[in-house]
């Protein structure tokens, strides 16, 4: 595996993954849950770090390892998210962040209902019957394996 090919591929995959996520959110109107937003972190980090690595030829191993850790984190969060969607795990506090329980009148109740976070177990968008969290779990796992092989090969 060529290092530059992997980095360019990671940049393209990250760009298209984030573009698709924002397309689904803003154009198609499917509001993401908190875990969906957290699952975007590896892609943002990869865009920044891979681009940096293409221009600056220093710290290859360290930056590749950080990207690897980001995608392992993304895979774990995605698998957990799929588990919540399938009813294997219960929703965590991350899924409930953003809501307020202090309601004193009807105006505050309406504001609270508007700001209530989307449930992590609700699947509002699927492709071939699979949620985006499922696709992300598979993609993050594959990228993690490729990066691990690249890191081991370069040592």
Number of helices: 7
Number of domains: 1
Residue fraction in strands: under 5%
Question: What CATH architecture would you give?
Answer: Up-down Bundle
CATH topology: Bromodomain-like
**Biggest sheet descriptor:** 2 strands, antiparallel
The oligomeric status of these chains comes to: single chain
Q: Helix coverage percent of residues?
A: 55-70%
Q: Can you tell me the CATH class?
A: Mainly Alpha
Question: What labels would you give this structure?
Answer:
single chain; 155 residues; mainly alpha; Bromodomain-like; two-stranded antiparallel sheet; 7 helices; 70% helix; 3% strand; elongated
Summarize the helices and strands and which ones pair or pack:
Blueprint: H1 3-27, H2 34-38, H3 41-55, H4 60-85, H5 93-96, H6 106-115, E1 126-127, E2 130-131, H7 132-154
Antiparallel strand pairs: 1-2
Short description:
The protein has 155 residues and is an all-alpha fold. The protein contains seven helices and two strands; from the N terminus they run H-H-H-H-H-H-E-E-H.
Describe this protein's structure.
The chain is mostly helical and 155 residues long. It has a single domain, classed as Bromodomain-like (Up-down Bundle). It is 70% helix and 3% strand. The protein has seven helices and two strands, in the order H-H-H-H-H-H-E-E-H. The chain has helices at 3-27, 34-38, 41-55, 60-85, 93-96, 106-115, 132-154; strands spanning 126-127, 130-131. A two-stranded antiparallel ribbon has the order 1-2. The longest helix is centred in the middle third of the chain and has 26 residues, at 60-85.
């Amino acid at each position: 595996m060529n290092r530059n090919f992997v980095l360019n591929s990671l940049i393209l995959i990250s760009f298209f993954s984030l573009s698709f996520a924002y397309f689904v959110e803003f154009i198609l109107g499917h509001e993401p849950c908190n875990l969906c937003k957290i699952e975007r972190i590896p892609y943002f980090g990869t865009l920044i770090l891979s681009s940096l690595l293409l221009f600056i030829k220093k710290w290859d191993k360290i930056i590749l390892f950080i990207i690897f850790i980001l995608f392992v984190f993304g895979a774990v969060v995605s698998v957990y998210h799929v588990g919540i969607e399938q009813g294997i795990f219960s929703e965590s506090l991350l899924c409930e962040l953003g809501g307020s329980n202090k309601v004193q009148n009807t105006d505050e109740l309406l504001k609270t209902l508007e700001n209530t976070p989307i449930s992590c177990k609700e699947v509002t968008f699927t492709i071939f019957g699979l949620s985006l969290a499922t696709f992300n779990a598979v993609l993050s796992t594959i990228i993690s394996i490729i990066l691990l092989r690249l890191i081991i090969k370069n040592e």
